[in-house]
Amino acid sequence: MAVTVPAATEQIDYADLYARWERGNWSAMDLDFTQDRIDWHEHFTDEQRRGALWLYTLFFHGEDSVAANLSPYIDAAALEEQKYFLATQQVDEARHAVFFHRFMHEVVGVGDGSLGGGLRATRAELTWGHRKLFGRLDRMAHQLRSDRSPLMLAKAVTLYHVVVEGTLAQPGQHLIETSLERMDLMPGFREGMRNVALDEQRHIAFGVKLLADLYRENPQETQDAIVDLIREVLQYTLSVPIPPGWDRSYTESLGYTMEDLYEEGARANEARLRAIGLPLDEIAHFPFPMDITPRERGKQALALLRAGLLGAGDGGPVGRDPQTVQIFFDLLARNVRGEEIPHGTTIQWDFADHEPWYLLIEGRRKQAIQGRVARPTVRLKLRWDDFGELVSERAQPYHLMMRGRMRPWGDPRVLLKLQRLFH
Ligand SMILES: [Fe+2]
Ligand SMILES: [Fe+2]
Question: Less Cβ around it within 10 Å: N or C end of the chain?
Fold first, then answer.
């Protein structure tokens, strides 16, 4: 497997990242929040305060989690230069958490002044996606403590530096900064965010460089580790910034839409993975379509989440809008591990209350087709809502089968593999 790491990534140097850290040092304690207090209480509307408190809480808890979970990465890194940089990063993350904590306490007025108190006082704002994703980061730190292998480190850095920092945090920070600049409010918080964003740039550059190094040493297995991790946490990642009740005023009151946020995330995610050198257009079961714009990718993700075909759902019926259904089956087709089943396999879904769909799988060529195939390799009979519960992992296949709500039929070799094929 030929590996081409972009020149810009090759030029990143661990020792230079450390030097940049020394030069970029700043103080979270020295930020002056006097004007911020006035702006927050007198110039923000109720809606803006609600939206900002929600979004900043996601960051506050995120920073606390990454500060606490970085130490096994220091142990698992191979080079001293990597270890030293990661040690500086851990200091940064603690400083970021202190920054958000100070803001929450001194400006918003929540908590008892202790870090733990601030976290407890804001915990109710966290989203389902946030709890799931950072729960996974906790478990990842645990795994890395007992397995310091390069492949485990690749997974861990993908989750931490590419997904959490590179896909979620940095695009979010960017939108927060520009919206506050436009409103010309909260100068102290803005200055802090600018510093946080500069730190994140170094962290992400480090993660990309480390992954590129691991990828060059062991291309196929490292690529699989990265892509598998992205697939594993996909639903969680996409669900982190969904506001309560899908209420768009949470972001729009601050001057940007959910589409803007998802577009930035999609663009950033692609840029980081390409910077590692991964041939995204050629990877067999890469979850995202790379032949459409980041904005389109973001919109597709939002449609699937809204329909309850990905993520936590909202307890209501699963969406059936034909365009969204098409997007979903295309996603299934792209995701299925076609190389692991016989050429020409067909998977048929027969819905009691929705039109049928099937996948035609010819190795790496995979197609989602609306309708029925004459002799499918396997067939699954179920209701559309149960299908939504199943594919978003809100329901387990054996539970549905035990309750007679899903009836599988066909080639047992493919049936037994079915779950693995889509994971
Ligand atoms: Fe941070
Ligand atoms: Fe960071």
Answer: N
